[in-house]
Amino acid sequence: MNVDILDRRPPAPARSTVTCLDGAWELIPTPSFRGNYYSDEQWLTVSVPGHWQQHPQLATYTGKVVYRKRFTLTPEKGKRYRLRLNGVFYFYVAYLNGFRLGENEGYAFGREFDITPHLNARTPDNELLIEVECADESNKSAKRQITGVFSHWDCLDPAANPGGIWQSVEIVETGPVYISDFRLTPVRNDDVIRLADENPPDTLELRADIVANSLAPSAPVYRVTFTPHNFEGKPFSIAWRANCAPGDNTVTRFFKLEHPKLWWTHDLLDPNLYTVRVETFGDELLRSRYDAWEFRWGLRTFEMHDFVPYLNGHRFFLKGNNYPPGDTRMATMTRERYAQDLQLAKDANMNFLRVHGHVEKREFYEVADELGILIWQDFPLQWAYDHCIVPQAERQVQLMINTLYNHPSIGIWCMHNEPIGLVDTSHYNPLALLRAGFSSYIYSWDRNVLDTRLKRVAERVDPTRFVLRASGKWALPWMSDTDSHFYFGWYKTGDGPKRRFETLTRIFPGTLQFATEFGAQSFPNLESAVKFMDADIQKIDWKLMQERYHFQPDQMADWYDWRSARSLPDLIAMSQEYQIDLNQYYVDWLRYHKYRPCGGFAAFVFLDSNPAVQWSLVDYWRVPKRSYDAMKTALNPEYAFAQFKQDAYRAGEAITASIFAVNDSLWSYERVTVAARVLDEAGQTAWQAPDMTTALGPDCLAQHVQDVTFQLARAGSYRLELTLRYGESVLVNSYRVRVL
Fold it and tell me: What is the pLDDT of residues 367-390, one digit of tens each?
């Protein structure tokens, strides 16, 4: 039986009853697990959600712990109860009232257990016990935990262990039929997926896939309701009845959404969202609700053709950054903190972020949906792994996709970050360099076997999104199915000086098709730096800075003499200036090659997950560095930039700069003006060119405006300032010019 019941009434506000078990829990560390047998002595009190190292007595503890929660709940007849563990680092076994519910592996993906038969019937008192283990991986070349950057990275506190129940624990109460999964997918039709400034279609066909779990044979009514969330429109609802067998049942329904609005990134159009509710009922009058889900959803298509992205059939250029864990202690991240981070990204003209080597809380993706920021989502694999993880990795990649499937912001799945034999990025010996080079460009079991299998799984589970087998190192002709990571100008061994980047890309232009890492380390602003280092530069513990706070002193010294800094403010300015110059160099080169062949790029990295000296634009306390402001300028949709052939010039030497302009917006400019002048160290004009003009079409390629040539008679540090006037707006961009 499969009967339509059309219903355009607004949905009822009631939802499934959820009992939250967050708050104070008991915890004990243990050398080994003992099932359900633990004494009542020496339990600590901890907060859930959280990480056990947040407790003062466990600040350096790693290994095994046991959590215990006593709670009251009186089950009602005819109701079903599920324990929902939304996130636990990394492996756990759960017990309720002495009964072993089951186990789970994987920190980012929740699991539910049916606890209806195991709740106490005679008394409301219940005891939940969870054994948790998150080991420190000793063999970094053969890791077994799928925790991505949390097990092995050069940007997280090496003393931190993420172990613990880091997301909420809940008990969900429903009727005899509950919804265990739900997917919405547009049925692709090129005639109706088009720009919103054309005539929109009256209806668009969607596919709904509902997985419903029934206690017994039944015929529930399903209802799906769409209510405009951030735009004007009328609610739309459809309901139907379908048979259910005991256990999981997949119900697929095709229907047409009336007067649809598309989701866009913020730089193109509006990120239109619907509030979607899917419900099950016991009768056609919709009086007896069994279960309900509600979430935000956006209608869009996303494709990559030769690494050039298309959103809703419209080609556009991706510009963004890598988003690390919002905090080393992921449990402390809130919707408000995510909103602050993503607003900073949006304000810096970023239209996408790469979630680097980990999976965030659902609130992160909800905010990205709201703000119109496209997400490149990494599966949490980082560097090298043991061969035994294949089955578990295949299981977890399906969980990741199922968990995040309905977020319109997610456009790209990537199976692995840098699947190479790398242990320490700050020290390269010849053997390590040889191993890294071989695994980067010749053969890597992680990439060639593990990631190939994961890509096949991901494409089967989600045929609607672009799937990348692995990220980095360079997209050379014999491995062109990847993006590129460029560290010319930072890692001298293995990459080299920044100008070698131009040589590589001229020989192998395909390496430019998409770049997702480049940059240099810098110190945070003084107000943040003094929170974890001495204000007196002579008293700073440089060994501690290297071991705990990620500082790579030898790499920094390869490009400028940071040790000559006379004060901490001097060192901060020196490091941020170099970071600005290097980031600007990469952005300009990549924007010059827009669509020829570059489809987009992400710098490395957006913010610090903990106090650090690293590649970030925003520090741990969310204070933007000067390099943030420079990146904001470099990513402006309308942009004028200069390219030099040298990094420094002799006094009196002719200096030639090629001036370009590019437009990534949907607007057309029949006439833009570029003014160029050189300022000396005192801010006085040392040279000025006549104004230059050009036209910029919508989403155009980089246009060569003019070459300018000037001479500077005296040694010193100068700035070439470019002023772009377009429409009613003005953008000022500047470059450091060193004269020796």
Answer: 999 999 999 999 999 999 999 999
Under DSSP, the state recorded for 218 is B
Rounded Cα distance between 180 and 16, Å, is 13
The DSSP-derived string for 652-686 is: T-EEEEEEEEEE-SS--EEEEEEEEEEE-TTS-EE
Beta strands in 576-711, from DSSP E residues, in sequence order: 600-603, 638-644, 648-649, 654-663, 669-679, 685-688, 692-696, 703-711
Cβ atoms of residues 38 and 28 within 8 Å: yes
Q: Does 34 score more than 60 pLDDT? A: yes
pLDDT above 90 coverage of the chain, percent: 87
Q: Is the dihedral of CA 185, 191, 194, 196 positive or negative?
A: negative
pLDDT tens digits, 307-348: 999 999 899 999 999 999 999 999 999 999 999 999 999 999
Mean pLDDT of all residues in 522-544: 98
Helix segments in 49-88, DSSP class H:
none
pLDDT, mean over the chain: 93
Look up tokens 């000559």; give the residue: 564
Sign of CA dihedral 86, 89, 91, 96: negative
Q: Does position 13 have pLDDT exceeding 60, yes or no?
A: no
Rounded CA separation 412/455 (Å): 12
> How far apart (Å, rounded) are the C-alpha atoms in residues 454 and 452?
5
> In 542-596, at which residue ranges do the beta strands (DSSP E only) sit?
none
Q: At what angle do helices 568-592 and 499-507 cross, to 10 degrees?
A: 20
Work out the angle between the directed axes of helices 626-634 and 568-592 (0-180°, nearest 10): 10
